[in-house]
Each structure stands twice: as C-alpha cells, then as structure tokens.
Specification:
heterodimer; A: about 300 residues; mainly alpha; two-stranded antiparallel ribbon; 12 helices; about 5% strand; B: about 475 residues; Cytochrome C Oxidase, Chain A; about 75% helix; about 0% strand; binds protoporphyrin IX containing FE
Chain lengths: ~300, ~475
Amino acid sequence: MSGRIYSKPVAFILMSVLVIAVGTLVTMVIPMLTPQMHPRLEALRVYSPLEMAGKDVYQREGCNNCHTQTVRPLRTEVMRYGEYSKAGEFAFDRPHLWGSKRTGPDLARVGLKYPDMWHYMHFEDPQSIEPQSNMPSYAFLTGNPLDQTSVEGRMKAQGLAYSEAEIAELEGKTEMDALVAYMLYLGHAVPPVVESAEAGEVTMEELGDHEALEHAGEETFEHQCSACHGKTGEGVIGPSLRDKVWLGVEGDIDDKVIFAIITNGTQPGLEYAGRPAKGGMPPFGNALTQKQIWELIAYIRMIQK
Amino acid sequence: MDDYRYDNQTVNGFILSAIFWGVIGIVAGLWISVQMWLPSWNVAPYFTFGRLRVFHTNVLAVGLGIGAIFGITYYIVMRLTRVPLFLPKLARFHLYLFNVAMVLVALSLLAGMNQSVEYAELEWPLDVGVVILWVIFAIVVFGTIIKRKEDQMYISLWYVIASIVAVAILYIVNNLAVPADLFKSYQVFAGVNSANVAWWYGHNVVGFLLTTPILAMFYYFLPKSTGIPIYSHRLSIISFWSVVFAYLWTGAHHLVYTPVPDWIQTLAIIFTIFLIAPSWGSVVNGYYTVGSDWSAMRTNYLTKFFLWGITFYGLQTIQGPSQGLRTVSQLIHYTDWVPGHVHMGTMGWVTMTVCASIYYVVPKIYKTEIYSIKVANTHFWLVLIGQLMFSITMWITGIQQGAMWKAVNPDGTLKYTFMETLVPNYPYWQMRTVSGLIFTVGMLFFIYNVLMTMHQGKQRMAGAGV
Ligand code: HEM
Ligand code: HEM
C-alpha cells in the first residue's frame, strides 16, 4: 500500500470500504442473488398461525441458545437425530434458528419423535421426564393466552398465507399450545428413513438366562420407556404394555414384531402385523443394541403375566 | 502541552460506564454458569437461561466492550491527532445516549425481545439506536482525524477507521428486518441465506469489535507504556491490510456441515487458515517490540498485561482457524469447547488489554500515579488463573462430549444416550463457576484500583488548590 494513503483519511476510508467489500460480495451478496440460497422443498408446509406463534415463543425464550436445528451429514448424528438437514427445509424461517451450541439435543426432527402429550409434560417439568436434565421449566406459558390480532399481524409481516378460520382457532389457545404445535412441525418436510424391520442376527434364545434378561430390561425400560409407557408399563402418554392390545388392535403379536416396533418406531406409514402405525413413538434402533431390545421384550413379557 | 483542551471528561465517563456494565454482565455470566448445572436457579420468565445468556453476551460485548472502545478510542484519537475532539458536545451526548441505550438493551433482552440472530439480538427500535450511536462515533472520530495536526496517521488510527467502517456495513445489512409491531420484527433474509448473512456478520462483528479496536489500543499503549517504538512499521502495514481483507471471507467457518453450499464453506475455510499469518504479524510485532528490552516485563506492570493479552490473541488466532477445519469442527462444533475458545478471547485478550489501557489512561486524566501496583499485580494473576481454568475445563469437557456423541458400540448402535453425554459435563461446569468467581475477584481488585486512583487524583488536585 503506497505511503501517501496514511496521510489522507478520506482516501483511507474509501480504501477500507473497498477492501471490505470484496469478500462481502463474493461470499454473501453474489450467492444471495442466485437460486441456490433460496431453496424450498416441495413438502415444506407454511407455518400455521399457531405454529408461527410457537416459533415466536421459541425465539423469545432463547431456546436456540441451547438447542440446534441442523442435523449434520455425519453418521452418528443421523443415527441420533434422523435424516440430515436439507437446504430447502428452512424457507419460512426469518431468521434461521440453527443455533451454535448443543447444551440440549438437536431439534431439527423432534416433530417426528414425540407426541404432543410428551411435550406438554416436558415443558411443564423437564425433570419429571429426565431427572438429570438442566432444562428450565416453562410451566408459566400455560398462563399466557395468545392474542389473535398480534399473531395475525405477525403472519402478515412475514408474508405467510393463512385463513380466517386458522386465526379463529387461536381462541382459548395459550403460548404453551403454540410452542407444542411448533415442536410437532419441526422436521416434517423430509420423510423419515425407515430401516429394515428385521429382528437381526441375535435371538432371545441365544441370550440365555431369562431372569437376567428381564432384570436388565427393567433398567433400560426405566430410562428409555417409562416416561411415556409408565413406571411399570401401565401406560401414560403411550399405551399400556401390560395388555394384549398392540397398535390399538386387540390380539397378541410375535416377539419379532415387537422388536421391529421398538427398532423403527411408529411413524405413520409403517405397518406391523397388518396394523397401521399412527405415530407417537420414536425409533430406538440406533440408541439400543439388539441385546438391549431383547431384554426389553423379556421385561415386557414378564409384566404382561 | 495543550492537554487542558482534551475532553477527558467524556473519556472518563465512558470508562466508568464500561466498568459498571462490565460488573452487571459478569454477574449474569456467573448466574448462567450456575444454571447450567443447577436448573433451579432459573427464575421464570425473566431470568431463565435462554434470556440471561443473551443478556450476558450483549451487556458485556456492548456495555463493557463497546463502552471501553468508545472512551479509549476518543483518548487515543485526540493524542494521535494532537487536536481536541471534533464536536465535543456531541461526544458528551454520545456518552449519555450510550447509557440510556444500554438500560433499554438490558431491560428489553430480559423481557424477551429478541431477533434470535447471534450477536444481533436487539429488536429493531434499538437497532436504530445502535446505528445512531455508531454514526455519532464516526462523525466525532473522522472529524477529529480530518482536522488533525499530525500529518501521518499512526497504526492505531488505521484500525479505528477500518473498525468503524466495517461495523457500520455489517450491522446495517444483517439487521434489515420487517417490523410487525414495536417489539417484534422478522429478518428480511430467510433460511440458508439468513444463516450465511448472519455468520458473515457474526464472525466479522467479533473481528471488528473484539479484535481490531483492541489492536488499536495495543499498538498505541504498548509503545507508550514501555517507551519502546513498535518493532516494524512494514509488518504493521502488511498485517493490517491482510486482516481487513481476509476477515470478510471467513464467516461460513461457523456453518461447517450445515446446508449452506459447500463452496462457500470451503472458501471460508481456506481464508480462515490464511488469517493465521496476518494475525501473527501483530503478535510478532508485539514480542519483538518488547524483545529489545525484556526487563520491561518485570519493571513495568503494564507490559505484562499487554504481552499476555497479545499472547492470548495469538493463541486465539491459531485455535480459531483450527476450529474451522472440517475434521476439527465435526468434533468440537456445538460443544463447550467453543465457549472455552470464546472466553480466552474475551477474558484473556479483550478484557486484559482493555484493563491495561484503563490503567494507563486514568492516572493520565487525574494527573497522578496508579494507586497500587501491587493490587494491579493481584488483579493480573487472578484474572489469568480464572481465565485459564475456564478455558481449559471447557476444552476438556467439550472434547469429551464431542467424542461421546460420536461413540458407537461394536454392533453399530450409539453408545450413549444424549443424557449420558450431558451429565459428565456437570463437574466441569461447576469448575467453570469457580473459575468465573476467581476471575470476578480479580476484576474487583481492578475496579478498586481504578476508583482509588481517581480518588487519589481528586484529592491531590484539591490539595494543589486547582
Ligand atoms: C465471570 C466471568 C464469566 C462467566 C462465569 C461467564 C459464563 C458464561 C457462560 C456460562 C456462557 C454460556 C456458555 C454456553 O452456552 O455453553 C457464556 C457465554 C458467553 N460469554 Fe461469558 N462468562 C464470563 C465472562 C465473560 C466476559 C468478560 C465476556 C466478554 C467480554 C464474555 C462473553 C461471552 C460470550 C461472547 C458468550 C457466547 C459464547 C458462544 O456463543 O459460544 N463472558 N459465558
Ligand atoms: C484468526 C482468528 C480467529 C478465527 C479464525 C476464529 C475462528 C472461530 C471459529 C471457526 C469459531 C466457531 C467454532 C464452532 O462453533 O465450531 C469461532 C467462534 C468464536 N470465536 Fe473465534 N476465531 C478467531 C479469533 C477470535 C478472537 C480474537 C475472538 C474474541 C476476542 C473470538 C471470539 C469468538 C466467539 C465469540 C465465537 C463464538 C461464536 C458463536 O457464538 O458460535 N475469536 N471462532
């Protein structure tokens, strides 16, 4: 840089603007003018007013300080959270809510994971579901009714399409309802990847000592299943496991089918022993070993007696 | 000397404001650090972690950081141009407006008014306020530089000019939003594009607030306090222009493995690696300056602050670029490693350098000496230990958590549930609270020292019948 510029402030200011502009143009402005920065998946639904109001609550409470909303294309991450995030899934997020810290788990696909009841219980008192969680309680949201005019104004400001009926439906709804609706929205645009529902190489017989299996199963059950199915399988959010009603239909099913349900979850579209799944239960195939799943089945069979 | 014409009162006011907001922000830091291992410390709705964390970052970056930058920049600019501030009344108004804005910043964030863009959380009416503050700053600084009596602009002024220009561009573009009402707006950018804009902003606002204005202080006060001129002018020139040029390309290193196009990520990573060279230009310049007389490290307490400060800057600028690499990012991204990195920069580099600059400036304004070098040394060691403990515990637990997220059993299933990867953080988060307390005690020594210096100066002036 020539020596003169250091005694010419105006030239120096202009020079700084120029030097700053180069990287800005190449990495930010030019991409913005191309379609690759404005993708939208066909399956991506516009937020309903209730879901949008939930997103506002999410932003106001700063949930994005602890939760991310992008699944990276890394093997273990896809196993933990589901299919990796696609560029076209965020077209209605102003701004994006990807976050930069995962004090809590990623939420990009949480909508496919739990039923609404689970979220109500969880927001009310997170420690009732995960005793060691450090998430604050958001019970106070139940006391905050939504304001229809304000929600409508916010839909308009974002240019989102909505119907009068959807606004009318907000009557009597609270911020808690909105936040739960937003949770259920997350991840809907990409269909879940379903693994083969095979029972795999290990079988219950090979594992030996039945009593030890039941005992180990009980422990896993307490950590992974009891929040939804009750402490001893009596049913809370999810159905009772003590009866012989499976997926809402009376009549017992084979151990191998139970194995498949635990592995793949109950996302709509799946079918087990001729019974269509209706959603609500996440897949555990990536979180539990085959042995652990057989242990759980041994435990479930025990409590059914 | 025409010292009496310098507007020291405005400088002094900004220094006191920065200290005040610094205390508030640090208390919030301690509070959220406890919430991370003791959720009963969340007090809904105003003091839950989600709101308080944003309060912590904003109050410290804006209140302590920008407050100190405004005041100390005014001090430096007057000395380097050898003229009083251009429009001193406007500068004084700047001080008042800054504090009014800070009160609104603090209250609005606790109330949950939040755009959810990292480091740009303030809602639109306050964005307008920030822009006004920045424009006033630009008018006063540029005006003073233009009517200067010293022909050549010294290195510090280059950094000041670049910072003012860059932050103005970054802040205005990133905060473009459509208001829905007085308290809520939506960014004009959506989805992937919004992420790319937000981190073009996010990385560079750290660069042009927590790096370049602090380098301006470093280049001014290091030679002043040691009496040794900067080692190489040429090296300063090269590192200045390459830092300012390269920074803007690197934002997407915060978006590694996200849906942002790969080519933007890769380009960002390449420039990120390149950034090591010019950053170390300043580090080497600092070392070689003191290198001509190392006894200054012992005999002059300020040298110690500045050299340790620039050392942490050096470590940051090696650690930061490594974090940008895909192989490193996949392990440490989203973990506590990153707050470890952040606090080495903010506590080690920024706060260390700002405190040392204040130690230099306050006795000059009050025409006295520092109240106690011993207290300054105690302050130094406490903040050093607190900061190192903070960063090291976070690096350990961050790597541990990253590794646990990726661990698989021999049969290919995940080894740990999310909760099993969260709970091992607790002892480290508790240690972080202890580190924060040590750092805070150090800062209390600093504040005591500054206030006593002011007191001593006032008494002497009164004694001299001035
Ligand atoms: C007593 C001292 C401090 C304590 C205990 C403290 C604590 C914390 C905690 C617990 C977090 C949240 C980390 C997380 O979400 O995992 C945080 C974030 C942050 N703090 Fe501090 N802090 C302190 C001092 C400072 C100072 C002096 C500054 C700046 C001048 C600062 C700037 C930041 C920033 C920028 C973040 C956001 C980091 C990120 O997004 O990754 N902190 N701090
Ligand atoms: C050459 C210099 C630097 C480079 C290339 C760099 C790079 C990075 C990278 C790649 C991250 C993201 C890590 C992740 O989320 O995985 C990061 C985070 C961060 N760095 Fe640096 N860093 C540098 C210097 C500094 C300095 C000097 C400071 C502060 C004084 C600083 C403050 C921060 C902050 C506040 C964040 C957290 C952003 C967030 O909220 O995610 N960095 N840095």
